[in-house]
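Q: What does the assembly look like in three dimensions?
Context provided by user:
Components: two
Sequences:
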Amino acid sequence: MNDNLLFDFNVDKTAKTVYITREFNATLALVWDAFTKAELLDQWVAPAPMRAKTKYMDFEVGGRRFYAMISPEGQERWSVQEFIAITPKTNFKMYNAFSDKDENRELPGSDWDYNFSEENGVTKVHITIYNESFERLEKLLEGFKIGFTMTLKNLEDLLAS
Amino acid sequence: MKQDIFQAIADPTRRAILTLIAIQALTPNAMAEKFDMTRQAVSKHIKVLHECELIKPEHSGREIYYHFNAKKMQEFDHWLAQFRQNWETQFNQLDQLLTTIKEQK
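A: Here is the predicted structure of the complete assembly.
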């Protein structure tokens, strides 16, 4: 990984908002695709050993992405993203909510705002996540915890052997 | 219903109460006096803060003193650190994916 690439993560607890900024060593067109095309998203959004599976994705205003995070044990956590606004290669906004496997949403969800810009071949992505409640935000990590626990378990096993 | 820590911290009065009792434990009456609020209004805020475990009551004779529960705030910060780590992992995976795609071209 390139250590010169910016990574900012800020939480405004009082505004219930998370701000994330990250630079990528790639063109805007490529980074935009990585954030907006299901076949690319599924390759990176789930931190290993979790994996992501998109059932369908209509990347258009009013369209949805219906996807699951899957644990190594096969446990699935489904979510629905609804696209609220899209300005190609500049910005998109979505409303993210957890759901059951039949796409029934558990409201309320959270508001996500993505901004993209390129300078000298480096693309900067700003993400703003607004959550009405911390409990909701906490759930975002729920699925990943399985992964974390497993990694730690692996390490323990390794150290024990 | 259990109170949400985000909701608890989002309120300016409750933040002020937390700031104050982080320095010194206070009784509800003392809080009402400091903030020029009714005892009822203070009780409501105490209830919210107590339910999400940001403050702890301690009985001293007939009085109840509320203390700041720093541990709960640390738990919250620890959780956020995990959330951050999670994003870092995802983005590192994306770095790899972008490199792979660029090499294929």
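Follow-up: Residues 12 and 139 of chain A are 18 Å apart (CA to CA).
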